[in-house]
Amino acid sequence: MSEVTPNKEERTFLLNARGFEVPMDKVPEQDVLKNDLVDSFIAEAKALSELHGEFKSRVFKDVNTFIAELAANYNTELGGVKGNVTLTSYDTRRKVEVGVADQITFGPEINVAKELIDRVINEKLATLGDDTLLQQVTQDAFSTNSEGNYNKARIMALRKYRMASDSDDWSAAMRALDDAIILSSTKTYVRFYERNAQGGWIQIPLVSKSL
Question: Which InterPro entries does this one have (predicted)?
């Protein structure tokens, strides 16, 4: 429920930063104007945020209903809510994407995995000579950004090379890599697109662009 702000004529005080009631005749006019401007913006922002949430929920509900009805036509059921769905208009000029994206972080096991993988790579280089492909793959996977964080997509892609070596160290590295993955949260998203004059997809933002 939204808060109700008294009319200016009805107000007898404003709360200051310490929570004390300050009589209106003691509050500078510019502070009253600033307070009312902020309050009006916040009220409108909260209303828009609520509408955005309701719209997003309705999109998910209607899309899930459509998918369920579609599955019923084929005498089957679709399990769970995971995965992405794209609905495209008949003329293929507009589309809606809805999905569930897992937010991934890494635990301390990631450092163990890196150490073991480096050991395997160095041993292969020492015994077999040049193996630039595997070396480049692992170096790229464990490269960090300016804040020292690993690239999540590259780390996850490294798991597909779990059969690249039959050494015990490599197997242990892959187990450490699996154990390092932490599913921190799940984020739902809705995206809307239209084609431009050149046929490329342009996303329709649900929030205003920067001024």
Answer: Phage_B3_Orf6 (IPR021505)
